[in-house]
Fold this sequence. Notes:
It contains three helices and nine strands, in the order βααββββββββα. The chain is an alpha+beta fold. A seven-stranded antiparallel β-sheet has the order 1-2-3-6-7-9-8. A hairpin with a 4-residue loop joins strand 8 and strand 9. The two termini are 23 Å apart. 29% of the residues are buried.
Amino acid sequence: MAEIKTKQHEGDVYSFIEEFVDMDSKKQDSHELIKIMSEVSGYPPKMWGASMIGFGCYHYKSTRSTQEGDWFLIGFSPRKNAISLYVFTGIPEHEYLLKDLGKFTMGKACIYVKKLSDINLEVLKQIMTATIAYLQEKYG
């Protein structure tokens, strides 16, 4: 079984933001996301891999392969082109939550936003709460 490369580590989240993020507005959005995600999840921010900030943790086992590992409940990455939000389960029962989110695009496993002012933060909190509940119920 291949080992998961993206793991939680003790890197400093705030130093990462200052060194990695090149736009002041994206730094501000990153700090706001830390505040929101800490509040919603009840967990402090932790670095995952080289560029992801995650909150909480769960252990998963794939039903389609022998893959298993640890992953954050919710998180984000302040990438150059957009902020990647890892906050959505992708299950059909949660798709209704996206309708009032605002301006975003979807990837396979994340939501991309240019800036936080493009989205409704209360809806984002609802999405995060639903995702955390789903993952905790599914994986314990």
